[in-house]
Amino acid sequence: MPLLRVSFVNVAAFVVAQYDHGLPGDSLRDTLYSFIPRFLWPEKPVVLLGGELATLVSGEVGNQISPGYFAEAYWNFGWIGLPLLLVPVGFFFNVATHFAARVIEREDWLYLPVLFLSLKVGMSIDSFYNGFVGTATQILALYFLVKFGGQLLRSLGMLPAEGGA
């Protein structure tokens, strides 16, 4: 039983079977909430997809599980969901990889928080897609905050002029 914490294949198989038996998921219904930061909307609904899925799988309340991006895409949309949802993930990984290489090459360490938050996305593919959307939105906001903050600090002479990822 402890190995179930390491492998999510059983959950993925469950949601794929659900879709194949005519019971598609609706875990993406609240994705738009992911774009709005909680500090702008403190009453934003708390989305507990992992608890709903755990209850659906086991019939018991009190646990949280996730099928991962791939299985969730299939669960919600079938085969068309794979390119529909995973092409943006692949695009994000491509951009993040090239951005990280550029930051390291230029030694522009001001962008390290952006890189670390991007790593979180890479380590969370076993999570729900809403998490990807929310974190990608945070990364974009943090990038612009660091970019404009860095430009301000450079114009004030507090940072060296070179760099500028």
Structural overview:
With 165 residues, the protein is an all-alpha fold. The protein has one domain (2-155). The chain contains six helices and no strands. It has helices at residues 9-20, 49-58, 69-77, 81-106, 112-122, 129-155. Helix 4 runs antiparallel to helix 5 (112-122). The radius of gyration is 19 Å and the shape is elongated. The model has no long low-confidence stretch (mean pLDDT 89).
Please, how many domains? 1
> Could you state the order of secondary-structure elements as H and E?
HHHHHH
* SSE class: mainly alpha
Sheet with the most strands, sense and barrel status: none
The DSSP helix count reads: 6
Shape: elongated
Helix content: 55-70%
E-strand count: 0
Query: Roughly how many Å is the radius of gyration?
Result: 19 Å
Task: Describe the protein's topology.
Layout: H1 9-20, H2 49-58, H3 69-77, H4 81-106, H5 112-122, H6 129-155
Helix pairs in contact: 1-3, 3-4, 4-5, 5-6
What is shown here, in short?
It is built from six helices and no strands.
Tag the structure with descriptive keywords.
165 residues, 6 helices
